[in-house]
Design goal:
By secondary structure, the chain is α+β, with helices and mostly antiparallel strands. It has one helix at 3-17; strands at residues 21-24, 35-41, 48-54, 57-62.
Amino acid sequence: MTPEEQAREQIDNKLVQSGWIVQDFKKLNPMAGLGVAVREFPTSTGPVDYALFVDGMPVGVKKEKKDTAGENITTVDNWRTNPFY
């Protein structure tokens, strides 16, 4: 299993433990439950790791970064690039 696959599995497990339904984009049903996290969701600037829906409405995106990226906030995308704003 690649490091990316391992990370995705861990993230999926944490989302499920938090009450989210995790789906692949190809099986998109944002109304499947109160909170739905959709993997590899396409946006105008490229796919995000997860798009988050609550009651079928998009509320946010999750873009994974390496642990070291968190040490330098300038390496993280500007929130204004979020396609849902």
